[in-house]
Amino acid sequence: MIEAVDIAQTTVRDPSLAASIDRARKLAREGVPTPVAADELGNTGFVIHTVPLATFVALRFGDDARASLVEAVGAGGATDSIAAIVGAWVGPVTERRACRRSSSTACSVERLARRTSRGSVLRSRKGSVASLRPVRASRGL
């Protein structure tokens, strides 16, 4: 997660936002509780608050998607925005890790989707063959 934040931060041009993200990173390294970070960083719906607080939560609790979302919601304020950002960052990382060790239907579907996005051939139990190609949504949807 740290590497992702490093890369993302290179796109930040606003000095105030960059400074707030740096502060969030420092608070996460120090292991401060989320309410303390929320008080210091802010938890309104303004980007200057949501992105740094989401960064703090993702860095501090990013190994556990559920804990990350609980912390984001528990911070108060604009919990919908903050939790949405945290979920978008943490979810794919933790889900991929979990799917490597799982044979659940959801993970099997994800693995199948990844294979079919490149186009592949599936053989049914009866021996019939189907070629799967990525499907594009129609403009009417």
Report on this structure.
This protein is mainly α and 141 residues long. It has one domain (2-101). Helix content is 65%, strand content 6%. The protein has helices at residues 2-9, 15-30, 34-41, 47-61, 65-74, 79-100, 105-117, and strands at 120-123, 129-132. It is globular. The protein starts with a helix and ends in a 9-residue tail after the last strand. The model is unreliable at 117-125 and 127-135 (pLDDT under 50).
Concise account of the structure shown:
The chain has 141 residues and is mostly helical. It has helices at 2-9, 15-30, 34-41, 47-61, 65-74, 79-100, 105-117, and strands at residues 120-123, 129-132.
Over the alpha carbons, how many angstroms does the gyration radius reach? 20 Å
Largest sheet: 2 strands, antiparallel
Structural class: mainly alpha
When the domains are counted, the total is: 1
Relevant terms:
mainly alpha; two-stranded antiparallel sheet
Topology, element by element:
Elements lengths: L1 H8 L5 H16 L3 H8 L5 H15 L3 H10 L4 H22 L4 H13 L2 E4 L5 E4 L9
Antiparallel strand pairs: 1-2
Helix pairs in contact: 2-4, 3-4, 4-5, 4-6, 5-6
